[in-house]
Amino acid sequence: MRDKKLLHPELQAKIALLEKELGKENIKIGWAETLRTKAEQDNLYAKGRSKPGPKVTNAPGDSYRSMHQWGIAADFYLIMDIDGDGQTKDDAYNNAKKTFNRVGQVAKKLGLEWGGDWRSIKDLPHLQLSQWGSTPTKLIATYGTPKKFMKSASWGTSSGKKAAGNASKAQKNTDKAATRIKSAQSFNKAYAGVYKAAANCNLMAGPGTGVVATLEKGTQVQCYGYYTKKNGKVYLFVQAGKKTGFIQKEKLNK
Ligand SMILES: [Zn+2]
Hints:
Blueprint: H1 9-24, E1 29-33, H2 38-46, E2 73-78, H3 99-109, E3 113-114, E4 126-128, H4 137-143, H5 146-151, H6 153-157, H7 159-179, E5 186-187, E6 193-197, E7 201-206, E8 209-215, E9 220-230, E10 233-240, E11 243-248, E12 252-253
Antiparallel strand pairs: 1-2, 2-4, 3-4, 5-9, 6-9, 6-12, 7-8, 9-10, 10-11
Helix pairs in contact: 1-7
């Protein structure tokens, strides 16, 4: 199956966040495998047994030994032109630029387990929720079958939805912080010009609130004359690289 909607709600939420984060780095991924049905697992198990080819798994469908059968794992591939030949199809599993490692790194920041960290067989495209351990042992002991797990509270009703909600809330807050730059209230041509940070300081979303970025001492910023006065202090509205925000005038040298 390739349908993300069949996955545990928390994994769906984390996948959405992951894709968004990777988008900022121009990394595009697709999903080769999400929920694996019993029939699909049986089909894999048959390879190298009743069907030709090498064996690919030791887990028959009714053993539920694959995390994919529990809806808490997904395998990604790249939709990118890694080798620069103008095509993406031949690079779905091209790790020449360590893109799989980067995806794994970002996924781990979201609390996911990455198959690339496994010691025995490294599984670079594999990601899974981490709270039930690396293997289905705990799930099997607790729920017996994926079907029962999917009807349980930890799937859709309470914790799963809550976790999904928390994940999307966290993303919304990040988005808000990025877009909620207040507009400057006043203009004074004399304030326009290039400044340098006198010390390490914060670029703020508003006068004195909401850190947008930390600027190192000596960082150049540009002010076009807009500012806001708050509690007797002047906060210049400045551009620092691609970011804009407020910095207290005292912390800048012209
Ligand atoms: Zn996998």
